[in-house]
Specification:
- With about 110 residues, this protein is α+β, with helices and mostly antiparallel strands.
- Helices cover about 35% and strands about 25% of the residues.
- It has a single domain, classed as Arc Repressor Mutant, subunit A.
- It has 3 helices and 8 strands, in the order βββββαβααββ.
């Protein structure tokens, strides 16, 4: 994982996330994300390479009251994967850790 000069940019291969401007680029193409998708991606990117549990992601993205509603997380992760991945069956960036959570690949 590589952080930019201001530590507000995260670069993971061809995936670039500008946290301050709330922009995401894959190669040279801007990827338009909903606010929830962006928050989910930013959370995963800040911890790239590490598995974040469903519970951790729900609390970070939706807040304390959503700690048990993993359906919302699965739906948004699937939408995010469709926007980031050329082949959703063989994801390059957003990986599912079955029964545990999600991980954003950092290599």
């Amino acid at each position: 994982m590589k952080f930019g000069v201001e530590a507000s940019r995260i670069v993971l291969g061809e995936l670039r996330i500008d946290l301050a401007r709330r922009q995401v680029f894959l190669a040279e193409n801007e990827i338009h994300l909903t606010p929830i998708e962006f928050k989910l991606l930013a959370t995963l990117a800040k911890h790239a390479g590490r598995v974040l549990t469903h519970q951790q992601l729900l609390k970070e993205v939706w807040g304390q009251t959503y700690g048990q509603e993993s359906h919302n997380l699965r739906v948004h992760a699937a939408q995010l994967r469709r926007k980031l991945e050329a082949d959703t069956a063989r994801p390059r960036y957003l990986l599912t850790e079955p029964g545990v959570g999600y991980r954003l690949r950092d290599d």
